[in-house]
Description:
It contains three helices and nine strands; from the N terminus they run αββββββααβββ. The chain has 157 residues and is of the alpha+beta class. Strands 6-5-4-3-2-1-9-8-7 form a nine-stranded antiparallel beta sheet. It is globular and about 35 Å long.
Amino acid sequence: MRRAALLVTVALLSACATPQRVAVPGEEFWSGRLAMTVQSDPPQSFSASFDLRGTPATGELQLTTPLGTSLATVVWSPGSAELRQDGQITRRGSLDELTAELSGTPVPVAALFDWLRGRTGDVPGWQADLAKQPEGRITARRLSPPPTAELRVVVQP
């Protein structure tokens, strides 16, 4: 369960990248690599490649290994969110509900999309460093609630 919690948190926080154009109007697409460290007991770390498409209201995030093997997919829409991992599906009524259950705190998806666009936002418990966003690098830190966490993202060129 701790691995799934970290995976979902990473999946939802991985959205810190520079957008690329897609053919679907109103949707955006980001792709890159991410690494997350959680200062839990014991400390946990995770890294993966990601593809994120959609909007804060409706989207899909895929996490893969460096060799392209699927780790997990998170899909959300109004009134529904699900995690697909290892042939199992976990469904909840919202993305906040799903992430809160798995990671202990809701992940601010709307703010993540702002970070992707290079816009800061006031997100309780989170700080995003967008100084290197133009170069495709973003760092976000969760200061509260504990445990603290750091996410580093590098966008594929």
